[in-house]
């Protein structure tokens, strides 16, 4: 097994093309599937289901986390909505793929620039850093346009009472999320972080036992 964390997504695709063993995308600029496996495990542990949940993401949606969340949501029947400034929405090809899956599985993938709309009645509130690897030149611009998308207690109050807050970390306090929220009772960020270990163990078992199979199940996660 090869696990590669790269910047350009094309590098991991090229590696997989020429490899005789399974290749895991540990992270790329386009997708972050390993993180999302941990997130799905965490969501399932908290909500006991996937289908019908509303997942709301805030911040830069032209990013690997919302890309992988959108793809997973479409497959699993979760409604996924992003709230981002225009110009920072999900890449078109990713959005189209996710929406096709969503249509088949009875859910929706929605993009908006209205954070209140996204938070309304959500089961999961998720955010990530405003300045990802490769975005450093835009730092000052991003610090000016993203504050309306900060996850605050006021925003959390628009979600369901039992909504959970998630962040793949590291988090920048009082930028993408207020200290009050990340330290609050609805925050499960450390449980989410721990589940990265268990999710990756499960992924290794999955690949070592059957490299031809390509399905995620909560039972597989629990096996690790």
Automatic annotation (TrEMBL):
Record carries keyword Hydrolase: no
Alphabetized UniProt keyword annotations: Transferase
Residue ranges of domain Aspartate/ornithine carbamoyltransferase carbamoyl-P binding in the record: 1-45
EC number(s) reported in the record: 2.1.3.3
Source organism superkingdom: Bacteria
Any Pfam family: OTCace_N
GO biological process, one term: L-arginine biosynthetic process via ornithine
Ranges where the Aspartate/ornithine carbamoyltransferase Asp/Orn-binding domain occurs: 52-206
One Gene Ontology molecular-function label: ornithine carbamoyltransferase activity
Record family assignment: Belongs to the aspartate/ornithine carbamoyltransferase superfamily.
PANTHER family: ORNITHINE CARBAMOYLTRANSFERASE, MITOCHONDRIAL (PTHR45753), ORNITHINE TRANSCARBAMYLASE, MITOCHONDRIAL (PTHR45753:SF3)
Protein name per UniProt: Ornithine carbamoyltransferase
Organism in which the protein naturally occurs: Candidatus Daviesbacteria bacterium GW2011_GWA2_38_24
């Amino acid at each position: 097994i090869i696990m590669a964390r790269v910047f350009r997504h094309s590098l991991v695709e090229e590696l997989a093309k020429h490899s005789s063993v399974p290749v895991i995308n540990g992270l790329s600029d386009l997708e972050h599937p390993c993180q999302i496996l941990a997130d799905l495990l965490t969501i399932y542990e908290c909500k006991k289901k996937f289908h019908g949940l509303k997942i709301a993401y805030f911040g830069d949606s032209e990013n690997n986390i919302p890309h992988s969340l959108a793809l997973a949501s479409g497959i699993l029947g979760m409604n996924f909505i992003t709230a981002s400034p225009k110009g920072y929405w999900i890449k078109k090809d990713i959005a189209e793929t996710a929406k096709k899956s969503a249509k088949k599985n009875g859910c929706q993938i929605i993009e908006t620039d209205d954070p209140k709309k996204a938070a309304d009645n959500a089961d999961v509130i998720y955010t990530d850093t405003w300045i990802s690897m490769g975005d450093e030149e835009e730092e000052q611009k991003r610090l000016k346009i993203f504050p309306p998308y900060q996850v605050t207690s006021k925003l959390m109050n628009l979600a369901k009472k039992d909504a959970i807050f998630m962040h793949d970390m590291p988090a920048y306090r009082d930028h993408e999320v207020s200290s009050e929220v990340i330290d609050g009772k609805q925050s499960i960020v450390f449980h989410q972080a721990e589940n990265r270990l268990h999710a990756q163990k499960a992924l290794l078992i999955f690949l070592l036992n059957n490299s031809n199979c390509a399905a995620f199940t909560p039972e597989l996660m629990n096996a690790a």
